[in-house]
Amino acid sequence: MFVDERKRPTETPLESQRPRKVQKTDNRMEEALSEIAGVVKRLVNKKENKNCKLIESAIDALQAIPDIDDELMLDACDLLEDEKKAKTFLALDIALRRKWLLRKLRQ
């Protein structure tokens, strides 16, 4: 008996059998997804920067309140971590800010 020394043709991976058009589409899809990820990252960074500025403004406004003690300052910082409350605080007239803080902290 003779052994057939001819090799079986090796199977090519499915990816190499795909038409070039599909490969180009895949590359475009990857590029699009990468671009979308970049846009999302920039939006998140922009929001974080906006929140940092809001917090800085709120703390500056807190420190501008005359005769504010350390305990009230720290409690107010905790309260103003809430973005909506921080915006409300900053929108108030300077004369009302202390009263608003005390009312919110009593609740």
From TrEMBL:
Q: Where is this region: Disordered?
A: 1-27
Which regions are flagged for Basic and acidic residues bias?
1-10
User: Domain named At2g29880-like C-terminal: which ranges?
Assistant: 60-104
Listed Pfam families = At2g29880_C (PF24769)
**Which InterPro entries would you find in this protein's record?**
At2g29880-like_C
By what name is this protein known?
At2g29880-like C-terminal domain-containing protein
